[in-house]
Structure formats: C-alpha cells, structure tokens
Design goal:
The protein is an alpha+beta fold and 305 residues long. Among the domains are: 45 residues; 66 residues, no CATH class. 46% of the residues lie in helices and 17% in strands. The chain is built from 12 helices and 14 strands. Strands 1, 2, 3, 4, 6 and 7 form a 6-stranded antiparallel β-sheet that branches. A 4-stranded mixed β-sheet has the order 5-11-10-8, with helices on one face. A hairpin with a 3-residue loop joins strand 6 and strand 7. Helix 7 packs across helix 8 and helix 8 crosses helix 9. The radius of gyration is 24 Å and the shape is globular. The relative contact order is 0.07.
C-alpha cells in the first residue's frame, strides 16, 4: 500500500508518545523505510545517539477493521440462513478468531510484549538476533525499536554454504520457538528476516505470533522419533512428510517404532498389543473413509474399527 503523509505520522507519534518530535528524537526521516496495510516504519535517531525505527499505525485502520468485520458478520448471518450447511463449518468461530488476531496485531503494546519474550528467549544466541523495543516508547499505535538490518534472506548472492547454514539456523530457531518457547513467529517472510554482518538471523515484526499447544508439540516430537532424526533438518523433513501424507510416513517407518512413539503421546496409549486412542484424527487425513485407515491394525477407535 502507498505510505500515508509524513505529517500524519509525526502527528501520531507526538500524540502517542506525548512530546514534540524534537524532544523525542535527534532525527526522524520523513520518507518511510516501508509501508503496509497496518503501519509504516520510519528511521530515526534518539538523543543518546541510538539508531531506531519508529512503527506508526496507519490512521483510521482500526475503524476500518471494525467496519469490515461488522459487514462480514452480517454477510455471514445472511449466508447461514440461505445455506444451512455453513453452520456446521463453524464459520462464525473462524471469523471471531480472525477479528481477535487482527485487533491484537493493531495493538503495538502486544507486539512489544512479544518482542521482549523472544529477545529474552534468544539472548546470547549465536544464530538469532531480536532487536529490543525501546523502553518507555511503546504505545498502542506507536512502537520504537532498535534499528537493525543486513542482507535479505532471499539474497541471490548467498553461497551454497551460507544457504545451508541459514536453513539450519532458521529451522533450529523455529523448532526452539515451537517446543521451548511455546509460541512462534507467524510472519517470517523475507521482508521480516535479515542476515546480519555477524551471520545471525534478525527477526522483525512480531505483530503476528501464534501459540503452540503442548499436545500438538508432543505429537510433532513423537512423529520425528521413529525416523531417528536428531537434527533440525531431519526433524522438519519427518514432520513435513507426516503432515503432507500420513500414509507415506507410516509406510517408511516400522510398525514397532510407530506404536512405540504413539504410546508416549497424550492422545494414545499402548494396551495389550493394541494401540488405543480416545479419538483418531488420522483416518480422515489418510483417506480411511474410502481406502481404509493405514493404521487400522493398531487403532481401536470407532472410524478405524
């Protein structure tokens, strides 16, 4: 989207932080570094000499979101009356979740909390860098963060060796987020990732951060165990194979290893030579309704029996 005028950005910064631009910054560039649907970012320098970026929320965007969500809710109500099967899809719950996520993303105080959480988790990391939010300069519509930059992760000049190290560092970072931190960066596109001069990956824009449920993490970890994967790349490969085609994944791994790993998950227990689950989500993915569940010999749930 096109950037909004610098005068509006300056006005929003002064109103949000409660002081004139001259007192807040030694320098503030009028030309934004980038502009998106929710906000735009300006380069600045604090009076103490630190280089920072100032993220300013687009004027009127919150009201626009409210209007759009209201229109979507009304449209959904009419559509549910015309098409009753829509009710079974729980589209209303999906709309409510979308609205909640959008409102969280519009609140930069929430993003600042995410930044602090990630910065603490990766403090001292040799592969990941998270620029800190500047204390005392965070409001609902204004966020001041330490300046950082570097090469883009999709830079064509990266060598094969640099690319391999980048992939390992990136996967290791996300696995750590998923399994250890309990949340993950939900918007890791090339515009939000940079390679610093010291080789570390710099993560930016923590407005979209998702939680990782403990049960989901347990299933993921268990699915990697039978393949004997010990590296981030091996774990990711095993997980991707399972997510894209459970039947293929099962075929590649021995039944004993599969039964062993499922017995350790919260959803499954090995009892008397049979795998007993309280509920089975695998059959639908693997086409159990039409071709037969690939784990029917172990699973005693209703759909598989």
């Amino acid at each position: 989207m096109p950037p909004f005028p610098a005068s509006e950005a300056r006005g929003a910064i002064e109103a949000g932080l409660g002081a004139p631009i001259g007192e807040l910054f030694a320098e503030l560039e009028d030309t934004p570094l980038g502009a998106a649907s929710i906000a735009q970012v300006h380069r600045a320098r604090l009076p103490d000499g630190r280089d920072v970026v100032v993220k300013v929320r687009r004027p009127g965007i919150r009201e626009a979101v409210w209007r759009d969500m209201h229109l979507l809710r009304r449209t959904l109500r009419v559509a549910s009356l015309v098409l009753p099967p829509l009710r079974r899809l729980r589209v209303g719950d999906l709309l409510a979740e979308l609205e909640a996520n959008l409102l969280r993303e519009l609140d930069f105080r929430e993003e600042a909390r995410n930044i602090r959480r990630f910065a603490e988790a990766f403090a001292g990391s040799e592969t990941v860098y998270v620029p800190e939010a500047v204390s005392g300069m965070v409001r609902e519509d204004v966020l001041v963060q330490a300046m950082s930059g570097g090469r883009r992760v999709d830079d064509a000049s990266l060598t094969a060796e640099e690319g391999r190290e980048l992939v390992e560092a990136f996967l290791d970072a996300h696995l750590r987020q998923f399994f250890v931190l309990g949340v993950f960066h939900g918007d890791p596109h090339p515009g939000n990732l940079f390679i610093r001069d010291d080789g570390r990956i710099c993560f930016r824009d923590f407005g979209l951060v998702g939680p990782s449920a403990a049960t989901t993490a347990a299933h993921w970890a268990a699915s990697c165990r039978p393949s004997g994967t010990r590296t981030p790349i091996g774990c990711w490969t095993a997980t991707w194979t399972w997510a894209s085609s459970p039947a293929t994944w099962i075929a590649r791994n021995s039944g004993r290893a599969w039964r062993s790993c499922c017995a350790t998950t919260p959803a499954g227990r090995w009892r008397n030579g049979r795998w007993r689950r309280r509920s089975c989500v695998w059959p639908t993915w693997a086409g159990a309704r039409t071709s037969g569940c690939p784990i029917a010999c172990w699973c005693s749930c209703g759909p598989c029996s």
